[in-house]
Amino acid sequence: MSKVIKVLGTGCPKCQSMTAVVKTVVSENNIDATIEKVEDIMEIMKYNVMTTPALVINDAITIKGRIPSKEEVLSLLK
């Protein structure tokens, strides 16, 4: 089953870095996933996230307010 990954962020440099890390991990490990970038502040608020970037995997918030390592993202996706 494909995973749905959302990167919540308004397009700040940290948000862009997180998106890059997630995309790299997904492609390097051939993970079946859809990556969505959520930049709409109203949409982000629905997740009750106050600090961005945030990583949402299958509607569960996994990381908030920091850029994860590739290893961390990979372990979350396994």
From TrEMBL:
Every Thioredoxin-like fold domain range: 5-78
Organism superkingdom: Bacteria
Active site annotation, chain numbering: C12, C15
Entry keyword set: Disulfide bond, Redox-active center
Annotated disulfide bonds: C12-C15
Claim: Disulfide bond is one of the keywords in the record: yes
Keyword Chaperone set for record: no
Protein name (database record): Redox-active disulfide protein 2
Highest classification ranks of the organism: Bacteria, Pseudomonadati, Bacteroidota, Flavobacteriia, Flavobacteriales
